[in-house]
Amino acid sequence: MRSLGVFPEPDGLSQLLLRLTVSSTVYCLSHMSSPWGFKVAARPRPAFHLLTAGSAWLEVDGQPEPIRLTAGDLVILPRGELHVVRDSPQSPIQWLDTILADTPPVNGQLDHGGGGERSELLCGGFAVDQLTGKLLLEALPTVVHLRGSEGRAPEWLVGLIRMIASEMASTGPGSEAVVTRLTDALLAQALRQCLLDVDRAVGGASAVSDPGIARALRLLREHPDRQWTVPQMAAAVSMSRSAFAERFRTATGETPMQHLTRYRMARAAEYLRGTRAGVREIARLTGYDSEVSVTKAFRRHFGVAPGAYRKANAAN
Question: Is the model's pLDDT at 5 over the cut of 60?
Answer without folding.
Answer: no
